[in-house]
Amino acid sequence: MECSNDQMRKIAEDEHCLESMIKQVYGGGGNQPLGEHGHILLDSLNLENIDDFIDKELKKTVQLVEMSSSMNESKGVLGPDKVIFDVSSNVGSLVIDRDRLGLSSQSNFSSIRANCCVYKGKWQYELMLGSKGVMQIGWATINCKFSQEKGVGDTFHSYAYDGHRVRKWNVSTYKYGESWLTGDVIGCAIDLDKGVIGFYRNGVYLGDAFDNVKIGPGLAYFPAVSLAYNENLVANFGSTPIRYPIPGYSPLQQYPKKDVAQTNQLLTWLEKLLDLYYSVTQEPNPILVVRNWPPQFKQGLKAQLLLVAAPLMHRLGPLLANAFLTEGCLLPFLFDLYNKDQGCMDSKSRITSILEIMWSLMEPHELHQCLEFIVVALLTGYRFAPATPEFHEQKKYLLLTLALLQHTPTKHYLLQNVLFDKIKFPVFLEVKPLDNTGLAEVVPEVWLDFKQEMNEPDLFRKACYQKSCTHLKLVVKEVELVQLEILLELFDASNVYQGQCSRCIFLLKLREFLKENSGGARVPVVHLCPLPVALAFFHRLISLLRICVSASGIDLNGLSVPCSTFYDNSIPYLEVQRIGGLQSHLLRIYQDVVVNEISKQKASTENDPIALGKLLKSEKSKSQHLRHAGDKDNFGTLIELLDGIVRLYHIAAHRQLEKMCALRDSMHEYRHALKEVEKRLKVQKGDVEEELNRAKQVFLEELIEQGRHQAWISSVVYSSDRQADVYWLLQILLRTLCQASETGVLFSFVPDFYVEACIKCCHALRNFFPPAAPADSLPAFAGHHELLIKYGSFLAHHFADERVVNAELKDSLVQALASYVCYPATLQALESMDSDSRLVMTKALLQPYENRAWAQSNWILIRLWKGCGFAFRYSVSPHMAKKMNCKSIPLPEALPTISQTPCPSPVFLEHASQWLLENPEAAAAFISSVLNQLNWAFSEFIGMLQEIQNASNRPERVFIDSRQLKICATCFDLALGLLRVLEMTVHLVPQLFTDPSRPSSEIFLTRLCQLVCQVLNRVTSKSGCFCLVASMEIPGLETIDHFPILTAVTGILVSLIIDGLPKSQKKAVNALLSEPSFQPSSLDFLLGSSPEAPNFKPFSLRDYKEVSKEEIEKVENLIQLLHSKYDIAQQNRGLEEIDDDLVCTICYANPKSARFHPCQHQSCRSCISLHLLSHKECFFCKALIECIKPLQLEKK
């Protein structure tokens, strides 16, 4: 009996405790229930009547709202309750989101309007800009007819604002507003009582745009927008709370006031309950545990609180499955909870507590919808929050996101279903740039670093500017640290939920993200990740990888991707091209090699012939690979993260780094223009001086604005930290590729983007980061030169590697090597390679120009020779430099073939000479191919010039295709380059042409003389097509001029005849004089000694400072020698007459001296020797030639 009494007393105490909780949560404040007319007294509240109490309280709240809304009900809008874009009104090509609020244009100019209109009252809607290009946004009537040329504002009764061009539009256009940026929120307001339209940018009014809007019967205005190609935005007509509400104006979509009031009331009760729940979960009281209650009450006080919360959450759940209520009510509530947690040292936050309650009591579909709306609202708030100098708003959204992700079930659900699937999670990792106003506040003083001499004020400005950049870097760093914490939370491998850890899911989603943004998909992806976001994502992932690698005890300076990763499918590379071609093809060819290699690596496994088939099942092997039970598997996940980083840099991050250089180039142009104005100001007076001063002020203002943007770029994009990220990645890539190359044929399995990323990293370090982050700012600068050598060695060994079959990749490697030989520092790195690497590179460059892309190889040889050839010491060809000076054009930095300073390489020239001498057959094949390509290139060039000449002689006006002009200029450049390579070869190894013991030397000398004479005759003919086109200055053919090609030809002749040994000189002279097309007058042209022609400006090498006195003397000696020898030869020829029947019918210059067998046809020895280099058939009958016999011996 005593036990029964104790139990009953205990039950009574617990019932009293439960009722106290109910009163504490639902009592106090609000409308107190009375005891009459069916109301429930607070003292009698319990679990049985709490539902009735909540329903009646919510009903009172709704009644109060109805009373106030009936008094303030506004009219003047026509259309559905849910306002979206009307798809049927679309003009052009638009991609529209599922909610019909997001737009992306895929045509030149696309227009669309909403599905509701207004005819009286004051209304507003907002547009959140996803890009900053040409968009015309505003209002239009239904009668406005749009097209892909005319959009909003281009017709009557349509009014628009364009922040890209800073203008307003209503048929005519006027300056209005200010420039907008990506991430801005543009408010569009219309007052139909006064006929006024105005626009807001981030809550700041830009002034009345139109004050004479036509109003009256029959006129109703629809929200309407027009977007240029690739522009995008998201509209908010009231489906979520307006970010910048305008007093007196209403959103187009009705505000759900009743639901808002109920939600706020429920959240008020929830906050009280949460305080109890938070204290219980932090300090559980075991005394209150009830032993003899039914099972649902045995959980203790926490279970009692959940019972109290159940009726509340039952009503709150359906409400929170609404985007407006989630963003307008729940999100501020969560921010308040987070602020309460600040300064509290408890291990569990209130955010975690409310998430536990939601996961316990809400229906799954309501919970999932609510969580999705929360994250969407957080991302929208972060992306479109005003960028203040301290980034307080951005940090607020990031910190709340981090708090949500610290709850394990929430994190897993969002990562699995929302972060990458419903939203662009990487947007959270970008720091939105400050606009002009914010930059002016952060960077008050701008230092223009182009001034050579600085006075005291300049030094002060420089110090202030650098201080501002440092402050900007520190402020941005604070935001980046929060972003990094979010990534670390998502990449946590220790917290397993429902059999999966978040790291597994994150890597899977990252791989899908990269695949989607890689391009080349069968279905084009419209909403690709913006490049600035991708670059920010790349740097955060690099920081994440550094932390995880260090925590795993792996050496940061020894990290690389194992070669086995590329063929064992531990990382599935779907639709990724390999260095050696398609993976299926490689597996078919090297199946045995792969199986053997895998069996070696897995010593515990017997040789299994089915191993390869199992490995091809990438998904299964991947799921096994990503278990995190041991260090080995943990290392595998880090390798997959590294692989994703490499791919991300390749597909997007590098493109953004390259894009950011445009500002630097623009500043270079403005600086040049400012210097020109300052020069003119020194000599101009009067009205011209005033105009110049105004121009100077405009340039200065633009430079100051650009200088502030450059401060942001230098601090955030091209900072030393960012440089260190790319440098570290380059080290990893080189280490990976070099190790893979040592595996032989397995190197073919390496994805091509590894090589592309390696090339891009080196290019970025050399061209993008300086001068903001020079090379000596690198943390490992001491080993920077060694890294350059290692990179150069990789290029030298692989630009002609037979294992590389991808044509585009081969071209990239050759172009990278061509760029590498352009600069003294990188050329020195190539010269510092070991001797074997230099010889490999030299041998590859001197392979025959057949069956391969040879233009880049030829250009590399030119760069190695430039500075040694005849008058070949210029950075810019003299005629181009003159044109640039006349037109005040800055030096074209983007044209390395024109503007690079000469830096010849004696080391590689010596290797080339040695290799050509030691490999006579290979040298003969190389020389033959160069002569063949020169003959083709120059013939094509002359043929096109003749077409241009014929077109210019026609009486009617003829337009020449720009593509034809480009091909013509390309052929000229190719011919010029081939001539320079021939000059190099003749200078280094003249024996190839003059030594009879060398194979085909006589033929090569004859062919060389033929080509030299052909070039001289065509170029020096004053009535010919070359002189005509060169004098016409046709756009696209600016590079065509006498100087570059004549100096190349002169260099060949000087090397052969003047610089050669006496015996070689004699042989060369005889060969030249024996050439029927040789004309001494073409040599006179070089020094201006030929007869003048009308309308032709005389040409002489003496007029160019690039030609030294010593070289002029050599040309004079050459002309004098050839003239004297030619006169003697002519006299001798006059004594000998050849019978017409005995003249070679191919060249009509030499007597017949050879008979072909078995067909018995005849020609001169020279013609048939040249013919047999590329053909085996007779000239005349096409019969196969078995042998050639001298004609004179047969007669004897």
Automatic annotation (TrEMBL):
RING-type domain segment(s): 1144-1182
Stretches assigned to coiled coil: 667-698, 1105-1132
Membrane-crossing residue ranges in chain numbering: none
Catalytic activities: S-ubiquitinyl-[E2 ubiquitin-conjugating enzyme]-L-cysteine + [acceptor protein]-L-lysine = [E2 ubiquitin-conjugating enzyme]-L-cysteine + N(6)-ubiquitinyl-[acceptor protein]-L-lysine
EC number: 2.3.2.27
Matches recorded under PROSITE patterns: B302_SPRY, ZF_RING_2
One CC-aspect GO term: cytoplasm
Name of the protein: RING-type E3 ubiquitin transferase
One GO term (biological process): proteolysis involved in protein catabolic process
Species of origin: Stegodyphus mimosarum (African social velvet spider)
GO molecular function: ubiquitin protein ligase activity; zinc ion binding
Pfam families reported for this sequence: SPRY, TPR_RNF123, zf-C3HC4_3
Residue ranges of every copy of the B30.2/SPRY domain listed in the record: 63-242
Keyword tags: Coiled coil, Metal-binding, Transferase, Ubl conjugation pathway, Zinc, Zinc-finger
